[in-house]
C-alpha cells in the first residue's frame, strides 16, 4: 500500500477503513453540535450533574419570581394604575430587550440561530400571556389571577401532544390534575373570604392562559431544533413583542394617558417597574434553562409550585384573611409536584409496591410478637 495514505499494511489481504476527521478550521453546523455550554447569568450549568442543574434552576425561579410577584402586586396597589397594564408590559418588554442585548454581547457566540418567523410567533404568544395577564389585574385580585395562571398545566400537556407529538404517562396526568385542583381550591377559599370576580378579568386571564400553555412547547421545540441560547430567545422575542405593544398602544391612543400618569409617580411606577423587570428577566432566564434541560412540563410544574408560594406570601405581605383551606390546597399542590418529579426519575426513585408494604406489615407484627414472648 502506498505510504502517502499513512496506512501500514501487516497483511496484504487485510482491509482498511479510512475515517475522515474535519480540521479545527472547519466550522460544524450548529444543528449537530451535541456539547455546548449552557450559561445562566454567568453560571455554567454544563459542569454540574443533572440533579444539581435542576436544583440551581428551581432555586433561581423561586427566588426571583417571588420578588417579581411581590413587586407586581405592589405596582398595581398604586392608586389609579390599574388601567395601565399594557403600558407596564411595554416597559417590561423594553427592559427585557435591553437586558437580553447586554447579556448577548457578553457571550462569545452572537449568532441568531432561530428563524425570524419563529420569533414573530413566539413574540405574539409572549405578548398575549404577559400583556393579558398584567391587564387582568385591573379586574381581578392578585391571588385569583395567579390561581387562574396555575391551571395551565393541562393545556401545556395538550399542547405538547399536538405541537411536539409527546405522550405523557399516568403520573404526569395525575400531577397536573392534583396541582390544578389544589390551586382551584385556593380560588374557592379566596372567593369565600373576599370575592372579586369580573367577567372581563376572567376572559383576559383565560386568553393569557391559552397563550401561556402554547409558548412553553413552542420555545422548547425551537431551542432544541436550532440550539438557540437563552439570551438570544429573550432578546428577539421581547424586542419584537415591544414593537407589537407599542404599535397597539399608539393605534388605540393608550400611550399618552399612561405616560402622563407615570410621570406624576416616577418612583412607584418606573422605579418599581425596573426592579420588577430585572427580577423577571433573571427568572425567565432560569425558566428557559429548565425548558431546554428538562422540557416544558417540568418547567411549568416548577413555576406552578412557585405561584402557590406567591399566593401564600401575597396573603402575608398584603394583609389578607387566612383560612386553613389554603394549607390543604397547598399540600395537594405539593403532592402534584412530587408526582411529576417521580415521573421524571422513576428509574431512580423506586416507590414500595403493595407486596412490599404487606411484607413490612407482616415483619412488624412478627417483631412485636417476638418482643412480647421475650
Number of strands: 2
Helical segment count: 13
- Silhouette: globular
Rounded to an integer in angstroms, the radius of gyration calculated over CA atoms is 26 Å
**Largest sheet, if any?**
2 strands, antiparallel
Averaging pLDDT over every residue, what do you get? Answer: 76
**Weakly predicted, low-confidence segments:** 1-35
| N-to-C CA distance | 86 Å
Structural class: mainly alpha
Instruction: Write out the strand line-up for the largest beta sheet, numbering strands in chain order.
Output: 1-2
Estimated helix fraction: over 70%
How would you describe this structure to a colleague?
One of its GO terms (cellular component) is Golgi membrane. It is found in: Membrane. The chain is an all-alpha fold and 374 residues long. 71% of the residues lie in helices and 1% in strands. It contains 13 helices and two strands. The longest helix is centred in the last third of the chain and has 29 residues, at 266-294. The protein is globular. The model is unreliable at 1-35 (pLDDT under 50).
Fold topology:
Blueprint: E1 39-40, E2 43-44, H1 50-76, H2 85-105, H3 116-136, H4 142-150, H5 153-164, H6 170-193, H7 199-226, H8 230-252, H9 255-264, H10 266-294, H11 296-317, H12 325-344, H13 354-373
Antiparallel strand pairs: 1-2
Helix pairs in contact: 1-10, 1-11, 2-3, 2-8, 2-10, 3-7, 3-8, 4-6, 4-11, 5-7, 5-11, 6-12, 7-11, 10-11, 11-12
